[in-house]
Design goal:
Blueprint: H1 2-35, E1 39-42, H2 48-59, E2 63-68, H3 71-84, E3 94-97, H4 106-117, E4 122-125, H5 140-168, E5 171-176, H6 189-209, E6 214-221, H7 240-248, H8 254-267, E7 271-274, H9 277-288, H10 290-302
Parallel strand pairs: 1-2, 1-4, 2-3, 4-5, 5-6, 6-7
Helix pairs in contact: 1-8, 2-8, 4-5, 5-6, 7-10, 9-10
Length: about 300
């Protein structure tokens, strides 16, 4: 009996590993079929997340429209994609200059995209500008810049491409937002305001376009960390606020977010929240026990955390 049990354990592990491998392969093939030949617009393709989304969707056989405010960086991304792609299974990406903080140019960009392919199947609104600092030290000009880039830019691009989706009765709009579209954190007033506004707009839009078979999805990570920066433990004293803040600021790698965007497109999910248990709990506490949440957040301000501004 003992020998049989010893032999069964490796076989069981091997069987589980085989099933996981089959599941991953099926999911990968399913993801490719979901975007193959689809026209996919990535609003900020030169960011860390944008590059990973470009890689994932390009591999899946999508007709990519890569937008960004630097032609050199777009060209570099283009070269990287072409160098590893199979020409028989992928399409040559189209490059378009776009700076969403300059909202006056957005309609012209949308027209250029539609003139090229005649339609857009998937729009990924992933552009974002961050700012950190006390509210009274953030200028109104910077507040407006944040709102232009994080709110007005994405909705103008969406409004320009939406009639095409409605007339074809198909399409999907993905907003890559932030946990700060659900709760406010000190020293991030302008950024949190723009993310709340964007989430509110796309939540309303989801209900409006459902009858046209247009899907609106939101993906909200804690924050998207850079390729080369990994959050450390730091020299934190023992306190509820500091524990909460440290956990809340742990980010998600761009590759993980890009893969989740692909799954969201494939499964047509309406809302996805990428976070570890602490930020998830914070959202629920903010909803059901707001006074407790406000008290914890106020504690952090009283402890005078050193939060430098960043442009």
């Amino acid at each position: 009996m003992g020998v049989t049990a010893v032999l069964m354990l490796p076989l069981l592990l091997l069987g589980i590993s085989g099933l996981l491998f089959i599941y991953q392969e099926v999911s990968r093939l399913w993801s490719k079929s979901a975007v193959q030949n689809k026209v996919v617009v990535i609003a900020d393709a030169i960011s860390g997340l944008g590059k990973e989304c470009a890689r994932v969707f390009h591999t899946g056989g999508a007709r990519l429209v890569l937008c960004g405010k630097s032609w050199e960086r777009l060209q570099s991304l283009y070269d990287a994609l072409i160098s590893v792609a199979d020409p028989s299974k992928t399409f040559t990406p189209k490059l378009v200059l776009l700076d969403l903080s300059d909202i006056s140019c957005v309609p012209d960009v949308a027209k250029e995209v539609l003139d090229c392919y005649g339609c857009v199947d998937i729009l990924i609104n992933n552009a974002s500008v961050k700012v950190k600092g006390p509210a009274h030290k953030i200028s109104l000009e910077l507040d407006k810049k944040i709102m232009d880039a994080n709110y007005f830019g994405p909705i103008i691009l969406t409004k320009a491409l939406l009639p095409n989706m409605i007339s074809r009765r198909t399409g999907q709009i993905v907003l890559v937002n932030s946990i700060q579209g659900k709760l406010g954190i000190p020293f991030r007033t302008a950024y949190a305001a723009s993310k709340h506004a964007a989430l509110g707009f796309f939540d309303c839009l989801r209900a409006e376009v459902e009858e046209y078979d247009v899907v609106v999805s939101t993906v909200s990570p804690t924050f998207i960390c850079s390729y080369h920066v990994h959050p450390g433990q730091g020299n934190w004293d023992a306190s509820i606020w500091k524990f909460f803040f440290r956990k809340l600021t742990y980010g998600v790698h761009p590759m993980d977010v890009a893969e989740e965007v692909m799954r969201t497109v494939r499964r047509k999910k309406q809302e996805v929240f990428l976070a570890n248990p602490i930020p998830r709990a914070a959202v629920y506490i903010r909803t059901f026990f707001p006074e407790l949440f406000f008290a914890v957040v106020a504690c952090g301000v009283k402890e005078k955390l050193n939060v430098p501004e960043e442009g």
